[in-house]
Amino acid sequence: ADGTRLGYDRLVVAPGIDLKYDSVPGWSREAEEAMPHAWKPGRQTQLLKARLDAVPDGGLIVMLAPPNPYRCPPGPYERASLIAHYFKKHKPKSKVIILDPKDAFSKQGLFIEAWTKFYGYGTPESMIEWIPAAKGGKVKKVDADAMSVEAEFDTFKGAVINVIPPQKAAQIAFDAGLVEGNWVPVQKNTFESKKMPGVHVLGDASDAATMPKSGYSANSQAKV
User: Fold this and answer.
1) Number of neighbours of residue 223 by Cβ within 10 angstroms
2) How far apart, in whole angstroms, are the C-alpha atoms of residue 224 and residue 192?
């Protein structure tokens, strides 16, 4: 930050992610105030909590799940579960709808089993509804002023709309010239950058093939 330059023999970086603000028509940095993502901690987390606290009993929460790959594959479905848990105690007439551009998600069987047991999943009274791509879960656009989401087959108006957008490596990875496409290509056995020898890229920013973008993966990569 002060302009000091440091030399290295090996450099290890964990840039993390940035959000693709131009990937959901109608959503932007300005719209994230009305439709929070809360996929980075801090103010956004507090904002989503405040919005959930203000939901009237019977209010609808609409969550936009992201396409693969993204930070924390089970995260959107964990969040839906926690919201339903909160609503069951305090706002039992409320509901969470997950609009998903995918037809499957991480740990799906376990989530469906728990949703069925605790929240009536699959019944008209279910507190959680998951709409996959095959059933119209892909979103065409959002309207932050109207608090609405237009999906392929229907339009939803929500008391809270949680947009979790597509993601990419953080800007510092782009600035450093490490990125191809959205992510950083690495040697799978050492996580050394394919574009910049001597630089090892750990965690969410790396293109680690089938290894998920999870904290457990990042921790394991660092140890190796």
Assistant:
1) 7
2) 12
